[in-house]
Amino acid sequence: MEDTVSNTENPPLKIDDQIELEIDDMAFGGEGVGRIKDFVIFVPFVIKGEVALVKITEMKKAFGRAKLIKILKPSDERVEPRCGHFGTCGGCQYQHITYETQQRIKETQVRDLFERIGGLSKELVKNLIPCPEPYNYRNRIMVRRQWNKIEQRAVYGFLHWDSRLVVDLQECHIAEHALNHQLAELRENPPPRNMQKVVLRMMPDDWEMHRDSFFQNNFHLLPELVNTVRDCLIDSGSKYLVDAYCGIGFFSLSLADLVEGFVGIDIDKQCILPARKNLEARSLSNGEFLLGKTEEHMDELLKRFPAEETTIILDPPRKGCHQEGLDMLAKAYPQQVIYVSCHPATLARDLKWLCENGYKIEKVTPLDMFPQTQHVECVADLRRS
């Protein structure tokens, strides 16, 4: 990395320079955006409209990064962060912003990503659904253990926002209170030294699952997430449902009353066995769970479930749907795909591909499953075009 920018049109900035910067936008990822002679500089922990004293930490040909030194002109939307570690800990990006403004920022960012990455109309994105509990909502956190050589003791917490050092936390303000009790117990009863990461979680009521299996991390907004998906399915009128990569069967079992038949599929036996127990506990007779790859089962399923009467639901990890899964959707060509995503950038990418291969988007609904952070959940409703 060069300390200065080689492009003569860019300002002659170098590492460690301190400058006054007006913030004119908020980037996806939580950083504020300022400009010096059209050269973009990213700064964390600021708000659009603020003027800040910043210190240059990185310079590239296309952009630079800076560290906040002092707010010179604060925004009316700035609030005091609840957590004393905010600005050091990398777990949150937005605690300094009113929750109403956080919602507006995320909604705008989703629309912009859809237009920029997906080439899609902003009008397809509906209003963001807020979380009723902006703090103490996470039912799962992963705490890191690290040895502090200077103090000769172990510290427990999350990574520093710009380093691999662990910030020692007594309490996490976005975690459920029960997890903070678990954190206190962890500190009193340290794990073996070879355990560098410890998962603390609350298990959901009425769901059988392995402790390491995936479950939505916000119980408070979960009913709205389910209702959003239900509304999409109801609107399509589908008679059959395929829950691809189904996990413990959360979505298919929550939607089973809307369809004549459903099948959930997952390659992980650790998920399918609990899913079958969850099915049995609900005394449902119109569905089943299969072990294996969705792509390998789809041809057989379409003999039972006509594509023009079937909905496929996807809830992939942050990296999005792999190409084999996208190809499967293009080949199967169901009347509806409901795509649930925790990363709007990869969602926009995948939706662009699907829209180029036989689908159209009815709507996308963002939900704030992750208040105080950069992350946002989205539900996309796609139909055969």
Q: Characterize the main sheet.
A: 7 strands, mixed
The run of helices and strands is EEEEEHEEEHEHEHEHEHEHEHEE
Strand content: 25-35%
Helical segment tally? 8
Give the overall shape.
globular
Helix content: 25-40%
Describe, in plain words, how this protein is organized in 3D.
The structure is a single chain. By secondary structure, the protein is α/β, with parallel strands linked by helices. The chain folds into 3 domains: 18-73, OB fold (Dihydrolipoamide Acetyltransferase, E2P), CATH 2.40.50; 104-131 and 215-384, 3-Layer(aba) Sandwich (Rossmann fold); 140-201, no CATH class. It has helices spanning 99-116, 177-188, 222-236, 250-255, 269-281, 294-304, 323-332, 344-355, and strands spanning 18-26, 32-36, 39-43, 51-59, 63-73, 140-148, 153-159, 166-168, 197-201, 240-244, 261-266, 287-291, 310-314, 336-341, 359-367, 377-384. The strands form 3 sheets. Strands 12-11-10-13-14-16-15 form a 7-stranded mixed sheet, with helices on both faces. A 5-stranded mixed beta barrel has the order 1-2-3-5-4. Strands 8-7-6-9 form a 4-stranded antiparallel sheet. The termini are far apart. Residues 1-8 have low confidence and may be disordered.
Can you describe this structure in just a few lines?
The protein has 385 residues and is α/β, with parallel strands linked by helices. It has helices at residues 99-116, 177-188, 222-236, 250-255, 269-281, 294-304, 323-332, 344-355, and strands at 18-26, 32-36, 39-43, 51-59, 63-73, 140-148, 153-159, 166-168, 197-201, 240-244, 261-266, 287-291, 310-314, 336-341, 359-367, 377-384. Strand 1 and strand 2 (32-36) form a beta hairpin.
